[in-house]
Amino acid sequence: MELRQLEYFVAVVEESNFTRAAERVHVAQPGVSAQIRRLERELGQELLDRSGRTVRPTAAGEAVLPHARAALAAVAGARAAVDELAGLIRGHVSVGMVTAGPTVTVADMLAGFHAEHPGVGISLSEDTSARLLGALREGRLDVALVGLAGPPPPGVSVHVLVDEPFVAAAPPGDPLAARDTITLEALCDRELIALPRGTGLRTALDNACARAGFTPRVAFEASDPNILARLAARGLGVAILPTTVADTHASALRAVTITRPGLRGRIALAWRSDGPASSAAAALVAHARLSLPARQNTGARSMSDTSAPASSSRRKS
């Protein structure tokens, strides 16, 4: 049994595809297939189910997978220990970012880290917060920028960067725009525009509506909050937006504070609670925590509060 066989096996399982796995490990696909076949012959069991459109681990493969990952992590740890003893930081780090996250901030952070540690390779991927947190816990990511609707899941530590309320945003001609506040339950019959499932904002919305006894009528979904705002400005529904995003669209939308319950969301830097798997990943977490300072936006002002004094004709619900 060779380490490269375990590496190829883990890559195929995580990519669910031989071609993508081969690209990931920089080996021709026949080479990957041949090495995994040798591993299967040595173990006397098929590890992968190749019969479907995607490749999946068999029961034997599921049993072998955690041991393969542990072996690869142990080797990486041994190399990291030697590098640390020699005063070197090198290797590779994997970073995840929630779709439509603060790209410029992350780019600046990664550029600073690269300048300090040019020997470390960096990969960046985008996904929903739910998938990023899963990849983080499984060791496929070293650090991730995620949206949180509540406490972080077990095994994950966070450094909160943004904590702000969500508002309901509608164009000035909408009856909702005449209000200062609205209860969440009062939105049960309105068509809503929101981020897709798996994002922090959508999870917060769905959970709050479930506690209130109804399912939100989400008519439109988009991964970019600015697109949600533009759809609402065209009268296609009420957008559920972070306050800061609503503020940037003050000329086209009026934001109304959601009460009973109020909705809040957080953007946070996340990593495994038991610590990064390598010295390079540990250095990245330390650098990110310094270059991405925590900041709070605890206000719950509506967009009209930032543009003009509220009119006496505005009503509360």
Automatic annotation (TrEMBL):
<keyword id="KW-0238">DNA-binding</keyword>
<keyword id="KW-0805">Transcription regulation</keyword>
<keyword id="KW-0010">Activator</keyword>
<dbReference type="InterPro" id="IPR036390">
    <property type="entry name" value="WH_DNA-bd_sf"/>
</dbReference>
<comment type="similarity">
    <text>Belongs to the LysR transcriptional regulatory family.</text>
</comment>
<dbReference type="Pfam" id="PF00126">
    <property type="entry name" value="HTH_1"/>
</dbReference>
<feature type="compositionally biased region" description="Low complexity">
    <location>
        <begin position="301"/>
        <end position="317"/>
    </location>
</feature>
<keyword id="KW-0804">Transcription</keyword>
<dbReference type="InterPro" id="IPR000847">
    <property type="entry name" value="LysR_HTH_N"/>
</dbReference>
<feature type="domain" description="HTH lysR-type">
    <location>
        <begin position="1"/>
        <end position="58"/>
    </location>
</feature>
<feature type="region of interest" description="Disordered">
    <location>
        <begin position="295"/>
        <end position="317"/>
    </location>
</feature>
<dbReference type="InterPro" id="IPR005119">
    <property type="entry name" value="LysR_subst-bd"/>
</dbReference>
<dbReference type="InterPro" id="IPR036388">
    <property type="entry name" value="WH-like_DNA-bd_sf"/>
</dbReference>
<protein>
    <submittedName>
        <fullName>LysR family transcriptional regulator</fullName>
    </submittedName>
</protein>
<dbReference type="Pfam" id="PF03466">
    <property type="entry name" value="LysR_substrate"/>
</dbReference>
